[in-house]
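Input/output pair, single chain:
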Amino acid sequence: MTATPSEEPGHGAGPLPTVPLPTRRLTLLPLRPEHAAEMAAVLSDPALYAFTGGEPPAPEALRARYERMTAGSPDPAVTWWNWVIRLDEEDRLTGTVQATVTGDVAEIAWIVGTPWQRRGIAHEAARAMKERLAASAVRTLVAHIHPGHAASAAVAEGLGLAPTDRWQDGEVRWEGPAAGRAF
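Output:
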């Protein structure tokens, strides 16, 4: 399913119909509140929050957050795209990728549960999201990464992003084109 121009980021209010994105090993599924229980288990390791702060969410709180996210941004100039990452061979959720799109810029983020890290899942999922964003009106990708988070920096670099001299909330702003080769 391809979104029509009126459904593309930055064009009209309301949530964008996010579509499933298959990759070699994964399927990125549009985020739904029903994913909260399984995702709460995926996000339950406190080590995941070493660089970002916070703590593992309770299933009820995560469901409420997912309900707000799937309702769409309250700002009609901003569109939210959110996927859960399913590792097909295990038929289980392993993390999320997301994009906050304003005009032709998407701020992107990813998280993969501890048991599935160091397997290329974050990079494969982020690459699929990048390709989807590049096929839309998005031209620039932005990620904010803690300077000590080498794994996230490697994912960003693999997407063709580079660190800038700008900081936000203790994180380095990385930028790059949405179109183009991802390694």
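The two ends are 26 Å apart (CA to CA). The chain has one domain: 5-177.
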